[in-house]
Structures are given as C-alpha cells and as structure tokens.
Amino acid sequence: IVIQSTEYRNDQQRFSITWDSVRNHLKEGQTAIEFVPIYFNRDSVIYCALLLQFNSQYPLMVPLFKEKDVFPLCFPYVHGKYKPNYAYSWDMYGLELTKHIWGNIIPYIKPGDTIFFAPAGILHQVAIESLPYNTEYTMSDVFNIKRLSSTTEIVLKKPQSEFTTATIYGGIQYDLDIDNLLAESERYAQEDLLASRS
User: Fold this and answer.
1) Which of 5, 61, 111, 132 is the most buried (most CB within 10 A)?
2) What are the pLDDT digits (tens) for 99-129?
3) In angstroms, what CA-CA distances link 155 with 51, 161, 164?
4) According to DSSP H, which parts of the chain are helical?
5) Which region, left, alpha or beta, applies to residue 29 given φ > 0 means left and ψ of -120 to 50 means alpha?
6) Which residues, including other chains, have CB under 8 Å from residue 37's CB and lie 6 or more apart?
7) Which among 102, 76, 106 has a CA at the least distance from the CA of 88?
8) Phi, psi for 185 (deg, rounded to 5)
9) Which of 176, 45, 12 is nearest to 123 (CA)?
10) Is 153 helix (H, G, I), strand (E, B) or coil?
C-alpha cells in the first residue's frame, strides 16, 4: 500500500514530522506559528501561539486571548442575533482584534519577516492577516504572511504552480437570505440567456 499510494505515503510522512523538522526548514527572518486553543471547560477557551524560528531551541508558547473576549469582536450582537463582522479590518473592532491576536506575538517578529501560520478554532473565521497593524497598514502590508492548514506544510513543500490567468469576484455578500439569493440567481440566468442570443 505504501509503495502504491502516494496519498497514504504523504499522510504517513506528515504524521512523522516533529517541531524540530519544521524549525530546520525555516530561514532567518521566518517564523512558524501554530495557534492552539486550550479548553478548560465549555465556557472557557484560552488561545496560545506556538512560535518557532530558525534558531529556536524549542517552541515558545505565547499566551494570547480568551475566546469570549474575541467572539463579540468577530460576531457583534446586532438586532437580537450574532452577525459576522466582515469589516473588522477598518472599523473600531480591528485594532482591538489585532491587540488580542497579534499583540503578544509582534515583539518576536519584525517588519518584512515571513510569517507562516496555522489558525485554529475561531481564528478559522477571521482573516487575521488582514487585521490592521496600525491605522494606515494591515498586517499583510508589514509582514509576508502565509496561511497554512498546518505548519507541517513548511516541511512538505510542493512545487509552486505557475498561473497566467485569474478570475476576480468582488462585492460578495455571504449573509443574503434565500429569497435574495434566488432573485440574484434568476437575474444572472436571464443576463446569460440574453448575452447568448446576441
């Protein structure tokens, strides 16, 4: 099975990767961050970051925030229900989120560094790389930030694909109700039909 199945072999390789394997693949100016939620009970979740750099003797655990403090910034309570906050980068919540998520990490990194990070828990629902660094720049403006599913991907690097074209979508509204979604799909279906006839 191992010889014939590339996917199985890759999975087995992934399970054998240790933190020092990740460290050995880092260069100066690169940091690997694995976010970790620690569950004390149903209502108490504390997030930490495990930081690795090329010269780390061991992973550094950096305490970050309590989930209950960050949840209302990501999902404010509006008109009787929690609504996703897609504009947190530039509203009053943005700098507060940056303080909770990046505040204790920033002393270990410097502008221009490459940051590999693997989110966890609520951080899967936040574009933390787009949070404001200050009132003028985002974190991605200041650091070269790369989101990973796991920091083991640093060891299992795949060859980069060369893309020559792209499709860009804008103005996407993720929280439309079903009636509005159906009305929008009807409108586009009719536009496509008219375009194909002309």
Assistant:
1) 132
2) 999 999 999 999 999 999 999 999 998 889 9
3) 16, 17, 27
4) 6-15, 19-24, 67-74, 94-101, 139-142, 178-197
5) left
6) 45, 46, 47, 67, 120, 121, 122
7) 76
8) -65, -35
9) 45
10) helix
